[in-house]
Amino acid sequence: MQTPTLVSLALYFILMLAIGLYAWKKSTEDSEGYLLGGRDLHPAVAALSAGASDMSGWLLLGLPGALYLSGLVEAWIGIGLFAGAVANWIIVAPRLRRQTVEYGNALTIPEFLANRFPDKATALRLTSAIIIVIFFAVYSAAGLVGGGLLFESSFIDTNLLGFSPYMAGVLLTALVVLAYTMVGGFLAVSLTDFVQGCIMVLALVIMPLVVLYGQGGGGIGQMTQTLETIDPDFLSWFGGLSFIGFLSAVTWGLGYFGQPHIIVRFMAVREGGIPAARNIGLTWMAVALVGALGIGLAGRAYVERNPGLAIENSETVFILLANTLFHPFVTGFLLAALLAAIMSTISSQLLVSSSSLTEDFYRLFIRKDASEREMVNVGRVCVGLVSVAAIIIASDPESGVLDLVANAWAGFGAAFGPLIVLSLMWKRMTGAGAVAGLVTGAAVVIVWIATGLNESTGIYEIIPGFIASWLAIWLVSRATVGDAAGEPHRI
């Protein structure tokens, strides 16, 4: 890696740490400030924070890599995600922002569920916290794998401080994220997400255009001709796609309703800011997804026309193009965009995991009368503990970014998706139904993956998990409708 590239990356790291220090001085005096930024996020910050924490390294590694290998048919994942995001902003965002305040000013999703269903408060908070920590350890590991792949591609055959390039990337990524997340809390995470979202979308616009229209690019026509020589169906939306494959791709969008690190942004945006945040967030997402699609397809065409280029892992096509086509200083900027995608998601996930461990476990079972300062400090310790688990999971260099994200995304989507939607919209839902849906959704996803049914059937695990969770909530709620279910919603 050349000196200008390292300078760009160093400047990026310094900027992230500076934002963390700013947030530390502004919003870490109490739990509401540390965990939700005082519920006063600007709509633009909330929107890009939700988008950046959502897309992660998957946007620059996993999705382009899938398109690079299989062609345009993989774009259905992005289409399903965009449709899910639209529904999430319309259905969940305004209701969650209002009802988390109405139900005891809840600071976490488990706390909101406990306040909504007081008869099952302890069971909901404890079960939710366990599911959040388990799946976020896996999800955070996916981001650290991305950091490892970046360094492995840039420091080939070089040991860094006694570590392989891959592990050095995993550890450095984790340390920088830990630094600004532990110090600055939610505000630091949200502000860094905003900056990272801007960097990401610039990179996603610039790179496909340079690949297509830069020296030797040849434009869209040349790209199309090259890709069709690989496979006549490479640019087909349905080439070789079965109904089950199509369904598994588009149902990624169901996961949005149950992603704690995304929907917590709805809780934090300032009052009345949801409509503006929705418009900004969906515009950013549309541009970002089209850019990722362009990187995968244009990158494959470029590599095919340049046989001297070697790529062992399709998920590193973004890194290969950044190192091959750009001035070293610009390369540093593009690699910083990749780190931005990775870090924005890891930081959000670590903070949500920390909030569950502190508010839904430590305060509930260990120190009910803990001071606000103590809770903030315990939260910082919990951030560190979850990050250690993520590092251990990510230590396997064979881990696939897309596979890890897919597993965690399905787990959250099935466990929390039906639960969040129905708790916000169905006044007859009961606490017993909420617990049943939470446990059933998570259990079905875990069993589906553990038994290999996701591979043998081709059915993405979120489909059976989401359906089973929804049915469990409906059936158990109807059977226990006479039980205390909390105050009915005002919809």
Task: Describe the 3D structure.
There is one protein chain. This protein has 491 residues and is an all-alpha fold. It has a single domain, classed as Sodium/glucose cotransporter (Up-down Bundle), CATH 1.20.1730. 77% of the residues lie in helices and 0% in strands. The protein contains 19 helices and no strands. Helix 8 crosses helix 12. The protein starts with a helix and ends in a 12-residue tail after the last helix. The C terminus is likely disordered. It catalyses: L-proline(in) + Na(+)(in) = L-proline(out) + Na(+)(out). One of its GO terms (cellular component) is plasma membrane. GO terms for molecular function: L-proline transmembrane transporter activity; proline:sodium symporter activity; sodium ion binding. It is found in: Cell inner membrane; Cell membrane.
